[in-house]
């Protein structure tokens, strides 16, 4: 199912890119603030963002754009500054769980099928 890129869809994709970056930055903050509960909250926010992007755009493209914004903020906030310190430093299992859990949520939401697309069947009726 391919759809044309209209100005409205392009604006929605740009909005999802910004929303992904904001969700990624908020996830970093919450992850460091309240470790076990913050990690769960950050992953649930990402899942909600990716699922909403899938529903709004209707294809995996929306999830990919939102995930690109999230990953961009993840990388920019985790890279050391010229002074030698990190803007937001997280260490240990929380940082890796946030990265791998967010990536898994993006893949799940990008590859799922909606009710409009119909069911998958190995045997197709002929005729």
Provide structural commentary.
It is built from 4 helices and no strands. It has 127 residues and is mainly alpha-helical. The chain is globular.
- Please bin the fraction of helical residues: 55-70%
What form results from the Cα inertia axes? globular
Describe the largest sheet: none
According to DSSP, the number of beta strands is 0
The termini sit apart by 23 Å
Proportion of residues in extended strands: under 5%
Low-confidence stretches: none
Structural class: mainly alpha
- What is the gyration radius calculated from CA atoms? 17 Å
Mean pLDDT: 84
Oligomeric assembly: single chain
Q: What order do the helices and strands follow?
A: HHHH
- Count of DSSP-assigned helices: 4
Short summary of the structure?
The protein has 127 residues and is mostly helical. The protein is built from four helices and no strands. 69% of the residues lie in helices and 0% in strands.
Name a few traits of the molecule.
single chain; 0% strand; mainly alpha; 127 residues
Element layout with pairings:
Elements: H1 7-33, H2 35-57, H3 60-78, H4 93-111
Helix pairs in contact: 1-2, 1-3, 2-3, 2-4, 3-4
